[in-house]
Amino acid sequence: MNEDPTNNVTSGPAATAEEEVQTRSNTIVRPTDHQMPLELRGVTIRYEGGGADPLTIVEDFNLGLEAGTMHCLAGRSGSGKTSILTVAAGLTMPTAGEVLWEGQSLDAMDDDEISDRRRALIGYVDQGGALIDGMSALENVLLPAVPDGQVAERTEMAKNLLGLVGLGRRMHHRPAQLSGGERQRVAIARALILGTKVLVVDEPTASLDREHANQIIGILKDTTRDGITVLVATHDQELIDVADSRTYMN
Length: 250
Ligand SMILES: Nc1ncnc2c1ncn2[C@@H]1O[C@H](COP(=O)(O)OP(=O)(O)O)[C@@H](O)[C@H]1O
Ligand SMILES: [Mg+2]
What we know:
- The chain is globular and about 50 Å long.
- It is built from 8 helices and 11 strands.
- The protein is of the alpha/beta class.
- It has helices at 14-18, 81-88, 111-121, 137-142, 151-164, 180-192, 210-225, 237-242, and strands at residues 21-22, 28-29, 38-49, 52-65, 70-74, 96-101, 104-105, 122-125, 198-202, 229-234, 245-248.
- Adenosine-5'-diphosphate (ADP) is lined by residues 47, 57, 75, 77-83.
- Pfam families: ABC_tran.
């Protein structure tokens, strides 16, 4: 532990401690050890009704996630789970309230900054975990590394991730040759390839039988043991039960 009170950059992962972020207001923000990876404050999400009255889906929603924990958004279809996930991932902006990544409000970032920070921080697995048909599992996992030209550097990690999700011997198979559960596992590996700290996952077990659903639950739980924070939307009671905390939407 660093006891020097003037220096709030202490242990923690080296990459985080060395990161200094220039915000639009020109302040240098140094992440501290205790910053939550993801926080939502007073988030309200309202959709225009195409002529009808606007529909308020989520109102004054608050959530703070500690590193290495899993939070579950539970609730029926249409209750706003996906809406919260996309807001948390900075893919859509809330009508009111704010989202903070490692203590920094997205309100203080421009679009490019949000994209850059998202790439470094958040892996998003959308519902169904869509993969590219013409590519192998390994190529799919490496896809996020293409824009930065990091495919070669990340190949070993991609193979390791596929091994961790139990697909070490399937890495050259195409999506059509994989089961639904296997495809979902490839999508999770892909979301982790850039060294993600926060995994945002939309209904990962929805279309799976119990056995394959349980494999996915095990993988998500394992990622939290590696210090990754998981925000998952589901109505799968077993997944709801293994989460460290949960919100029931209605
Ligand atoms: N872009 C949008 N414009 C208008 N209404 C939307 C939009 N996205 C979602 N909705 C509506 O908001 C509600 C919540 O949707 P969603 O967040 O997808 O819920 P869930 O993921 O829990 O099924 C639904 O009634 C849906 O039709
Ligand atoms: Mg949804």
